[in-house]
Amino acid sequence: MTFVDPVCLEGQRLCLEPLSQDHLAGLQEAVTDGKLWELWYTSVPHPDQMAAEIVRRLALQAQGEMLPFAVRRLDDGRLCGMTTLLHIDETNRRVEIGATWLAASAQGTGINPEAKLLLLTHAFERLKCIAVELRTHFMNHQSRTAIARLGARQDGILRQHQVMADGSYRDTVVFSIIDSEWPMVRRQLLHRLARREAL
């Protein structure tokens, strides 16, 4: 299996489906839940830009740089977001989990940690990665907290790392999980999800 071979990853709450043009209408609907494109500290496509975003992600997959997914809830069957493995480095067996957005109604439901569990399991156990990165905007405190709760360690901050659409600079916070840490991270994630299920 190469790092960009399409694969469906299914959990208790969601299925990560290989991204395709067939997901367009569902993703356009999902992104309006919370008007996510209005968040200044992240880059989420407007419904009118979703078709181009799907084309962009699939082109990066064809170039061996990204494995994109649509996120489908299993409780109602609706799409609720996108996520990817990106910055793929097969030689050094490293990937990044990112380019993720979730509809407002899916946030805080256990979907995000389960999606991360599925992606991390795929990366460490099927692709045999030695490290997985997670990155976010310095000002995205919700994302930084969620990444830290996964058990990832902060590696550092890349100052003025990117120029945002509005011309402002993004300081990028870099986190990672290495293969020796994966068993503990996996155990913590499973415990969190089991506790949520029991509520």
UniProtKB/TrEMBL annotation:
Domain N-acetyltransferase: 13-153
Keyword Disulfide bond among record annotations: no
Pfam families, per the entry: Acetyltransf_3 (PF13302)
InterPro entries according to UniProt: Acyl_CoA_acyltransferase, GNAT_dom
GO function terms (MF aspect): acyltransferase activity, transferring groups other than amino-acyl groups
Keyword annotations: Transferase
PANTHER family per the UniProt record, alphabetical: BLL6696 PROTEIN (PTHR43610), N-ACETYLTRANSFERASE DOMAIN-CONTAINING PROTEIN (PTHR43610:SF1)
Protein name: Acetyltransferase
Organism: Gallaecimonas xiamenensis 3-C-1
